[in-house]
Design a protein that fits this description.
- The complex is a heterodimer of chains A (275) and B (271).
- Chain A contains 8 helices and 10 strands.
- In chain A, strand 1 and strand 2 form a beta hairpin.
- Chain B has one domain: MetI-like fold.
- The longest helix of chain B has 38 residues.
- Classes of the chains: A alpha/beta (275), B mainly alpha (271).
- Chains A and B meet through strand 6, helix 3, helix 4, helix 5 and helix 6 of A and helix 8 and helix 9 of B.
């Protein structure tokens, strides 16, 4: 996509910087045989700056995952355009990493070989890819578990291996679909803290789908709120909380205010019974 | 755990001894005619007689080579066809009714046809065994390939796996256990096909021995042959399981670079 000016952002973005990720008038309908198409997403414009951490929240079925999958090249949206690094998304890209709530680890591979899998697919020779996989396993605090298989790892460890696998290919953009949703409350906070530390060091562009407002405010630079189906963006909240942040610390007044505002916005986007 | 499995073994032997003892006793007391029912001691004597027979080894070799060849052909074709159908769903949808029809045909009924086409030698039995094996292996392979966890496929695709890589690095290893279950069944089916083929028309093999002894009213020898068949198929099943363990263990071996002899820092588990 040509460098159309990004709308003035509350953050440091200069208005001439091209968006790392952009959605222009994106809409998507799900079509099932013999049924009228179900609109999942309508009229969505979104720009994500390079190095920005964006969280998308919304009620289930609001199309936030659909939009994420459109960025990933897994879904071709019915309407509108999606670009990454200024280029239209046409299928899966090697510079985009993706992580979801389930780990998808291969049970016959060791943790190390699971982390090295993306590099293996790219033809990186074994010594080098194991070296790099070791580095990323250490980064998520699992250096002692390189030879463990999925069955020998706890839920939290599996998700951390999946995180290391996503990071190991060193993608410029990381797309995350409720990556910590399957973890219990305590493990979730610990893994969030680890991820925050890693992210604050590398500052890759992240789009993070979640239904957890606290998680969104804790991690993101900006939170966008989707209405219920057919989803569209109904609110945008820059999160000015200074970094480095922590998921385990107590929440101050600014945090609570943002959380309440986002919650109120989310409720406005829901009608009927959900209200 | 150990104690209890030892106990099971003792009871298993006890069941065998009681069954054999009752049989022997009932024949000895004259309640059963040994001409029709034989008896464990008659069977043991017949077994020794059969094993001493100079042609015995030739019969076993005939049956084994038909069985192994039929199994190998059926297994290779079955795995190949199963994966092709799994990858190419159009072909699977087109062929599904024909496969179901062929599979529902009692394939043993084809034996006379194979004998007409291929003669009474090895090949009619090999083809008989292979036709039985191929379908069971196709359906297991197809089920295995379809049940591969879709999350693993999605992850591999997102990490940039091409179709060939997806197959070799995800589908194949993920389906191996179920494919092996199909192969274990295949061994039993191969035995069935071979022996039935030999019983219908052959001049060598354990199935030929069975029909010869039946035709000459040598019940003890017939039953001794059955004992040999049981021993043979048990050994073959054991061999398949052993091969499976070897192959899967190999796939699960730690990575070669594992050594690195890096000190293993034990990070405390966080849960």
């Amino acid at each position: 996509m040509p460098a159309t000016a990004a709308p003035s952002s509350p953050h440091r973005a200069t208005s001439t910087a091209p968006a790392m990720i952009a959605a222009l008038g994106v809409g998507h309908d799900y079509v099932a045989e013999g049924l009228a198409p179900t609109p999942a997403l309508t009229d969505t414009d979104l720009r994500v700056r390079e190095g920005e951490f964006l969280a998308m929240v919304g009620p289930s079925g609001c199309g936030k995952t659909t939009l994420l999958n459109a960025f990933a090249g897994l879904v071709v949206p019915t309407r509108g355009r999606v670009t990454i690094g200024g280029e239209p998304v046409a299928g899966i890209r090697s510079d985009v990493g993706y992580m979801f709530a389930r780990d998808g680890l291969m049970p016959w591979r060791t943790a190390l070989d699971n982390v090295a899998f993306g590099l293996e697919l790219r033809g990186v020779p074994a010594p080098e890819r194991h070296e790099r996989a070791r580095t990323y396993l250490a980064l998520v605090g699992l250096e002692g578990f390189a030879e463990h298989r999925r069955a020998e790892l706890s839920q939290g460890m599996r998700q951390r291996v999946a995180l290391a696998r996503t990071l190991a290919t060193e993608p410029a953009v990381i797309l995350m679909d409720e990556p910590f949703a399957a973890l219990d409350a305590q493990t979730k906070v610990i893994v969030q803290d680890e991820f925050l530390k890693i992210w604050e060091r590398s500052r890759r562009t992240v789009v993070f789908v979640t239904h957890d407002i606290v998680e969104a405010v804790t991690l993101a630079d900006r939170v966008v709120v989707f209405s219920e189906r057919p989803g569209r963006i109904i609110g945008e909240f820059p999160i000015g909380i200074p970094r480095p942040r922590s998921a385990s610390g107590s929440h101050d007044a600014a945090f609570e205010r943002l959380r309440t505002e986002i919650w109120a916005c989310l409720r406005r986007g829901m009608s009927g019974s959900a209200r | 755990m150990r104690g209890s499995s030892f106990k099971v073994l003792i009871w298993q032997l006890a069941v065998l001894l009681v069954a054999v003892g009752v049989w022997e006793l009932v024949v000895a007391l004259g309640y059963l005619n040994p001409f029709w029912a034989s008896s464990p001691s008659f069977i043991a004597a017949a077994l020794i007689d059969i094993v001493r027979e100079p042609l015995f080894v030739k019969h076993v070799v005939t049956t084994l080579s038909e069985l192994v060849a039929g199994f190998a052909i059926g297994a290779v074709l079955g795995i190949a066809i199963g994966f092709v159908l799994a990858e190419w769903s159009m072909a699977e949808r087109v062929l599904a009714p024909y496969l179901a029809a062929l599979n529902s045909l009692p394939r043993v009924a084809l034996a006379p046809l194979f004998i007409l086409w291929l003669g009474i030698g090895l090949w009619s039995k090999i083809v008989m065994a292979a036709t039985l094996v191929v379908f069971i292996v196709i359906s297991n392979t197809l089920a295995a390939a379809r049940s591969v966890d879709s999350d693993m496929i999605t992850v591999a695709r997102l990490l940039g796996a091409r179709r060939g890589q997806l197959f070799v690095k995800v589908v194949l290893p993920a389906s191996a256990p179920v494919v092996f279950a199909g192969l274990r069944l295949g061994v039993i089916y191969a035995m069935l096909g071979t022996v039935v083929g030999e019983m219908i028309a052959a001049n060598s093999g354990l199935g030929y021995m069975l029909s010869f002894y039946a035709g000459s009213f040598q019940v003890s020898h017939l039953m001794a042959t059955l004992v040999i068949l049981i021993a043979l198929s048990t050994a073959l099943s054991g061999a398949t399981s052993w091969l499976e363990r070897r192959l899967l263990a190999r796939a699960r071996r730690p990575t070669p670079s594992r050594a690195d002899v890096a000190p293993r820092l034990q990070t405390p588990a966080i849960e």
